Structures are given as structure tokens and as C-alpha cells.
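User: Quick sanity check before I run a bigger batch. Here is a single chain. Can you write out its predicted 3D structure?
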Amino acid sequence: MAVRHRLIRKPPTEVWAVLADGTRYAQWVVGTARSRPVRGQWPGQDAALAYEIRLGPLRLANETVVRRCQEGSTLELEAHAGPLGTARIALDLRAWGEHCLVTLDEHPLRGAGGRLHNAGFEALIQLRHRAMLGRLARLCEEGGPGARDRGGPPQAASPATTVPGGGSGPGRA
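Assistant: Done. Predicted structure follows.
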């Protein structure tokens, strides 16, 4: 099970505002493009987003469904990745002083992803999570009012946030 965390230097309400905007999903989720709500009121339970995954010339239409939502603190998603299967993705937001500690937990549920899950696959998920949390942090910390209109996902993931005094505490991605 791939679990990663990141200290985002904004309050949980500002981080939640980004997560609760289904049109911004592709801006922070690595590998996705053009997200759009297709069912329900995102991020309400059973609401869904459609998006495209691009793997070189290959384009896969996918969907993510909200399985559990506690407004402002917990968002659990089920990502449907066609032949790759499904995965559970859980985001937990906690106040950490004046900032937000985000924990991202993902594991395969069904399909090829579950059958092929091993230590190597886990390492790839960790790299993806590092980039996702970096993108989310950048959207929240640098976002401002016009960030929504900048178009397209952010470029490369930013370096890990360092905890005062160093180490690998809650601020390391």
C-alpha cells in the first residue's frame, strides 16, 4: 500500500477547495488530462469525473468515483483505469499548525493492477504520489485567484518541503 504525505503551507480549507473542484483534478493528478464532472455533485458520494490518461500515443478514457467524503477532511476515490483495473485513493487533510498535512494512500482493488502489484509497482506509485502532492501543493500555495485560468497541468513537481531542522518528518514528500 503506497502512503505518502506532504505539508502544504495553506490551511486545510484552501487545500480542500482545490480537491473539491472537479475541473482541477487533471491539474494535480499525474497522468490525467481534461477532467470534467459526469455524474453527481463533486465531491459528493457517488459523484464521478471523466478524464483521459495519455501513455505515449495511447489514450484511455477513465473515470473516478467518490466513495466517501467528509467535507474538508477526507476524500476517498475509486479510480477506474480500464484494463488496468481499479484503485482506491484516499486523501486525508489535517490541520498542522496553520498549515495542512495531506496524506495520500493508494492501493489497487481489482484487475491487472491488483494482480501485478509488487515492490517495483509500489516504488512507481510512490514516485507518482510525490509528483501529485507536489502539484497539489503548488496549486494551493501559489494558486491565487487566477490559477484556475492558467490552463493545463503544472510542469515538473516541486522539490520536497523541508521540515525545520531537517529530517523526514511530516513536511517531507
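The CA atoms of residues 75 and 97 lie 21 Å apart.

User: Great, the batch can go ahead then.
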